[in-house]
Give the backbone structure.
Amino acid sequence: MVSLRSLTRRWLSQDLKRSLQQMVLGYNSHAPSFSSAGEDMILRHILGSDKMEGFYVDVGAFHPTHFSNTYFFYLNGWRGINIEARPGSKELFDRVRPGDINLEVGVSGECGVMTYYFIGENSTMNSFSRDFLNQIGMLGEVRAEIPVPILPLATVLDRHLPNGQVIDFMTVDVEGHDFEVLESNDWTRFRPKLIVVEDEEVNAGDSRIIQMMKRHGYEMCAQNVIILDKINEYFLIDRLD
């Protein structure tokens, strides 16, 4: 049985930590969303607003603060792995998010090299998928085709996930290459409790991502519209946990 003294000490410790974060980091319970469509606040609601520590994996992290699904959590004391394929991105992540593991690599089914369709340094639509860019009418905006090294997600996590570390959530946003990212994981070894993933299939019943993740024991628990009738975002929870 937990004693009243123990509970009081634990409450004071959490309250002190929260107060220090508010003073040093500017965090508060009404902090603004850093995500492009409120994903961090949806995650916060599902995970619990009082969860002060955790670990994330951000595949297609884009920028350490702008349009980030994980920066809110970083400010709140969480840590994780940021994976961004854009050449030169790691330097900024290391400077702004030194507490995280920051990787400059693409994620796909096999080790090797893939063509990265570069639209711009500040574009969220840089992609490995030519078909996706064509589908959303952005193919004509491509300024360069860059060979970028790629690794399967399972390989990245095997190399960089700390031993015994639980992944509280993983966010995948790689502009049309999301299925390939998830397919490249080893779901017997690396199981985030919660996954956020973009999908150009806006009918959840027809989504091959959802169908694949159901086979791995995940179930959709929320849905977010990114571009009406073009791109949806699905939140999937581990039912085997």
